[in-house]
């Protein structure tokens, strides 16, 4: 039985499905491992349960790569990503995001752990198209889940979170200085609320805050 044994060959959708299944098993390690092996082999769990112990041990060892973070040498940013019928082009410079992309990116970034496919739809645009114009974003999302591998997905997310962290940190510093100079009132309260949100976004992006 063939099995996916590395992040470069693992589709994002398959990976997210494995994570969801492990969470759903609630600590049942055997059930989670069987589900993981089945997903990586593209087969049914019943077939995994029917394997010999020797074959099961081989597959479990091959699946053990999931216990470690994706190696840095696999993370890179390409000029284009073929995904199904789409050739997706990343906006490599965070400053060049459109307002619509920026708003969507911020929304998905609030829960990036569960919204990674959505976040990537805000960063990857079909070649020859403008963001969210002339194509179905849901179809792009499906293509990303099906055809984009985990290493590329994590590389793209990390690249843009680094840009986002620098941008948010700059805005956060300015907002804090401005808030200190304002008199108490609704405007200051609104600014402080926004500042707290920026701090939370910065922390979720890995930048930390004080």
Structural class based on helices, strands and sheet pairing: mainly alpha
What is the 3D form? globular
Helical content band: 55-70%
Q: What pattern of helices and strands is seen along the backbone?
A: HHHHEEHHEHHH
First and last CA, distance:
51 Å
What about the largest sheet? 3 strands, antiparallel
* Estimated share of beta-strand residues: 5-15%
- Spatially, the strands of the biggest sheet line up as 1-2-3
Low-confidence stretches: none
Rg from Cα: 21 Å
Can you tell me the number of structural domains? 2
By DSSP, the count of extended strands is 3
Number of contiguous helices: 9
Quick check: average pLDDT?
83
**What's the multimeric state?**
single chain
Architecture overview:
With 210 residues, the protein is mainly α. The chain folds into 2 domains: 7-67, no CATH class; 81-204, no CATH class. The chain has 9 helices and 3 strands; from the N terminus they run ααααββααβααα. A 3-stranded antiparallel β-sheet has the order 1-2-3. The protein is globular and about 70 Å long. 27% of the residues are buried. The mean pLDDT is 83.
Please specify the SSE layout and strand pairing.
Layout: H1 12-25, H2 29-41, H3 45-49, H4 53-62, E1 81-83, E2 86-90, H5 99-109, H6 116-121, E3 124-126, H7 137-147, H8 150-181, H9 186-204
Antiparallel strand pairs: 1-2, 2-3
Helix pairs in contact: 1-2, 8-9
Write out key terms for the chains shown.
mainly alpha; 9 helices; globular
Q: How would you sum up this structure in a few lines?
A:
This protein is mainly alpha-helical and 210 residues long. It has helices spanning 12-25, 29-41, 45-49, 53-62, 99-109, 116-121, 137-147, 150-181, 186-204, and strands at residues 81-83, 86-90, 124-126.
């Amino acid at each position: 039985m063939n099995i996916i044994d590395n992040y470069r060959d693992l589709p994002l959708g398959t990976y997210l499905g494995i994570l969801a299944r492990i969470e759903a098993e609630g600590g049942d390690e055997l059930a989670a491992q069987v589900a993981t092996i089945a997903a990586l082999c593209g087969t049914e769990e019943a077939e995994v349960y029917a394997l010999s112990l020797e074959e099961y041990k081989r597959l479990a060892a091959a699946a053990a790569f999931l216990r470690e973070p994706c190696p840095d040498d696999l993370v890179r940013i390409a000029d284009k990503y073929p995904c199904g019928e789409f050739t997706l082009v990343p906006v490599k410079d965070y400053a060049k995001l459109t307002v619509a992309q920026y708003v969507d990116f911020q929304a998905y970034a609030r829960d990036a752990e569960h919204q990674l496919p959505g976040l990537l739809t805000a960063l990857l645009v079909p070649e020859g198209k403008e963001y969210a114009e002339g194509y179905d974003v849901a179809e792009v999302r499906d293509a990303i889940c099906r055809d984009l591998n985990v290493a590329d997905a994590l590389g793209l997310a990390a690249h843009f979170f680094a840009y986002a962290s620098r941008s948010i940190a700059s805005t956060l510093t300015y907002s804090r200085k401005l808030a200190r100079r304002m008199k108490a009132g609704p405007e200051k309260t609104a600014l402080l609320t926004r500042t707290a949100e920026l701090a939370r976004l910065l922390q979720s992006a890995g930048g930390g805050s004080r």
